[in-house]
Amino acid sequence: MRIAVIDIGTNAVRYLLAERKGNEWVDVEVGGAITGLGRGLVERGELAPIAIEATIGAVTAFIRHLKALDARKFILLATESVRSANNSAIFVERLEKATGLTLQILSADDEAKLAFIGATSGLKIRFHTDALFAVADVGGGSTEVSIGKLQQPEHWLSIPVGSRRLTEQFLTEDLPTSKQLESCKEFAIEQLQPAAFLLRQAKVLVLTGGTAAQLGIFRLNLRQFDASRIHGLPIRQDIINEWLDKLAVLPANERRQVLGMEWGRETVIIAGLVLLSAILELSGKETALLSARSVMHGVLLTMTG
Questions:
Q1: Is 288 within 8 Å of 280 (Cβ atoms)?
Q2: 35 and 67 within one domain
Q3: What is the span of the domain harbouring residue 20?
Q4: What global pTM score does this model have?
Q5: How far apart are alpha carbons 290 and 207 in whole angstroms?
Q6: Confidence class for position 304, pLDDT limits 50, 70, 90
Q7: How many CB atoms lie within 10 A of CB 23?
Q8: Please, are residues 144 and 136 in contact by the beta-carbon 8 Å criterion?
């Protein structure tokens, strides 16, 4: 049986279609679109009507597509923007009416745990089974940091800082100034301080989320996302900073033309890379691994029945 998981985030809607083969879940198709559900949320405290429309439209289109691919069961998830918006009840009611599905709003704790389980699954690495892994899941509205052994989270926390939040708070000009970038990085490090101990304690740091996937595309010079090539890819701090420097001097319309750039991500990619750089700096490590898996995989791996 094929199961579809749809994850509604602050910046993007993602879907995963998977089927069970033996004891494993195998990806059939992964996709999504940037709808910016949390655009302006920090300033207004509410989801914007245009973003609600775009998100509901994307979700219903994905459901039609996935049904055509023989999806028999759907799991619909939402995270930080829906958790925190004052008008989330309106969005939930409209979405459920449009889709006929029940929306599960993940708590910050559940999001962190599921991100860890998903991100560390399927990693082909040569570490002792007792090695501690830290997973940093950078989203549009929040960053989840968790630590544990492979697929066994032990401690976790969610920090309300993400690529869209930072963009709207600090990088307000099309070409961010050096002062804006510096303030953005300082704020990111300050906000992430509660996670510093977890990041340093782990032997292996894993980065996941939309920015991490985009960085993998850039690093491998791909035209589009390829999970099989990105999952487990080592990434150094200098590579993150190289892409940050390269993109920060381009206006958004030119960033959009960079090979492999996901449509819509050009507006938040700089803040996302600032966050990845801050996380690696706080971890005290020279290298991290990119994960192409996510909360959606974590949901499948923890399903009962």
A1: yes
A2: yes
A3: 2-105
A4: 0.94
A5: 5
A6: low
A7: 5
A8: yes
Strands 12-21 and 287-290: what pairing? unpaired
Q: How confident is the model at residue 22 (pLDDT cuts 50, 70, 90)?
A: confident
Contact call for residues 86 and 145 (beta carbons, < 8 A)? no
Does any domain span residue 132? yes
Question: Which of 78, 105, 132 represents a domain boundary (last residue)?
Answer: 105
Q: Which residues contact 282 (CB under 8 A, 6 or more apart)?
A: 189, 192, 193, 195, 196, 199, 200
Report yes or no on 110 lying in a domain. no
**Segment (H or E) for 206:** strand 204-208
Strand 287-290 to strand 233-236: parallel, antiparallel, or no bridges (unpaired)? Answer: antiparallel
Dihedral over Cα of 195, 196, 201, 202: its sign: positive
pLDDT digits (tens, 9 = 90+) for 242-265: 999 999 999 999 999 999 999 999
Label residues 122-160 b or e (16+ Cβ within 10 Å = b). bbeeeeeeeebbbbbbbbbbbbbbbbbbbbebebbebbe
